[in-house]
UniProtKB/TrEMBL annotation:
PROSITE patterns: HTH_RRF2_2 (PS51197). This is Rrf2 family transcriptional regulator. Gene3D superfamilies: Winged helix-like DNA-binding domain superfamily/Winged helix DNA-binding domain. It comes from Pseudoalteromonas fenneropenaei.
Length: 137
């Protein structure tokens, strides 16, 4: 099963944008993440639509934060990326008439919903400035 690492990767980039305090190109960010610049542009466009980043074209163009990290929560970024499930595990639906599958799904559904609700609540309490690396003297 493939992990969805978009949230952690985007958080990485946003903290870097704050640390550099300058615009970064899609190419630069793609190198940092080991991915394609097109993937970066598509993902960053989702954040631009929500007002978290800005972009400018041209030779000196790139991406920059539109808000301070202290005004952005993990929940907001999670939602901007499409609000997918926070879990890579899921319920099976291959044998919908099987009473064992129905019982397993029923038990897992409640536990997973409770865990996800708690996780999303915590995401809403954590601003991105708390993720920034700070040097100690």
């Amino acid at each position: 099963m493939r992990k969805d690492s978009r949230l952690s990767r985007v958080l990485h980039i946003l903290v870097h944008l704050d640390a550099f305090a300058t615009q970064l190109t899609s190419d630069t960010m793609a190198q940092m993440l080991g991915t394609n610049p097109v993937v970066v542009r598509r993902t960053m466009a989702l954040l631009r639509e929500r007002g978290y980043v800005t972009s400018s074209k041209g030779h000196a163009g790139g991406w920059a934060l539109a808000k301070p990290l202290s005004e952005i929560t993990l929940l907001e970024i999670h939602q901007a990326l499409g609000d997918s499930s926070v879990f890579t595990i899921g319920l099976t639906d291959e044998h919908t008439e099987c009473p064992i599958e129905m019982a397993v799904n029923e038990a897992l559904k409640d536990v997973m919903a409770e865990a996800e609700a708690l996780m999303l609540k915590r995401f809403g309490e954590l601003t991105l400035d708390k993720l920034a690396f700070t040097k100690t003297p």
